[in-house]
Structure formats: structure tokens, C-alpha cells
Amino acid sequence: MAADLVIEEGDLEVLRDRTSEASSGLRSVTVATAGIAMRSIGKDVVDDFVYTGSPGAAVHSVGTLGVNPEHTWVSAIPLHDEVQGMGPDSSFGRDPKELEGIGHLSGDASGGDGYNPDPNAGKYVNHSAYFYRAKPNEHNYSLEDIGKVIADTMERK
Q: Residue ranges of region Disordered (predicted)?
């Protein structure tokens, strides 16, 4: 699989420049870098691809990701994850939420242990909440939907 991965010359340098401008954190850069990698990866190498809290898709169309467009997904927490779509289209690519044909997963991580509902909390405090374990008797629907993608039981909405 790794042999099928080709990152175009200059892609990483662009990401380094944009990352220092955005100060968006390592995981977000990883998602944008993954989008770049997906442009060049061979067909049928990756089964599903999920964007979470991404500053950009690194592409302008799900059809250029190297994975079946029916198996591309995005989850976007609406509160305190302002990393999403923070870069202009010319740097990080389109906001994944706006990619035509992408499947939308729940962005509701409010039941996650560590999710911060305080309206005065920082702009990025829920940036990792997609992956928080659910509190007892609650749900992190974002994480549950990601699990359904992995288990191949997620239906398109």
C-alpha cells in the first residue's frame, strides 16, 4: 500500500507554510495531509475516508480522493471547533463540509467525556471531541458514526 502513495512535490511545503499561519494543531494538519495523500493513492487501497475538524479537504472534489466517493465522509462539531474550514480554498482546499457528494456524519459529540458546552470556552476546545469516549448513559454520536463507517454499517444521509 505504501508504494502506491505519492505526494506531489511542494505539497508538504505548502502545508508547513499554511500550518504556521493557522496554528491549527498537529491532528488538523494530519487530516489535510491525508487529503493530499488521498489524491495520489491507488484505487481500492483505502476503503473509507473520514474528515474530522479539518481546516480543509486538500481537494476540491471527492472524486479526486482515490477512494469511492460513496465512501467519503465528514463530521463537523458545531461548537468550539473553529479549525474546520479555517484556511482559504487556495491553501487547505475546500471545507470538507462543502464538498459535493461527501457523506455527512453526526457532529454531535456533546455526550463525550471532555466535551465543553460553555459558550465562553475557547475556539478550539472541542477540536478533538470527535474521539472522546461517551459519558455514562450518554452518546458521542460523532464517534459512533465513525465506528459505523469502520464497520461498514453507516448509511448515507
A: 84-119
Q: What is the pTM of this model?
A: 0.77
- Spatial CB neighbours of 144, under 8 Å, sequence gap ≥ 6: 106, 134
Dist CA 40 CA 52 (whole Å)? 20
CA 46-48-53 angle, 5° bins = 115
The answer to whether 147 and 48 have CB atoms below 8 angstroms apart is no
Please state whether beta strands 49-52 and 72-75 pair in parallel, antiparallel, or not at all (unpaired).
parallel
Contacts of 147 (CB under 8 A, 6+ apart): none
Q: Assign residue 79 a region: left if phi > 0, alpha if psi is -120 to 50, beta otherwise?
A: beta
pLDDT surpasses 50 at 4: no
Q: Helix (H) and strand (E) counts for the chain?
A: 4, 3
Alpha carbon distance 31, 54 (integer Å): 6
Letter for the amino acid at 145? D
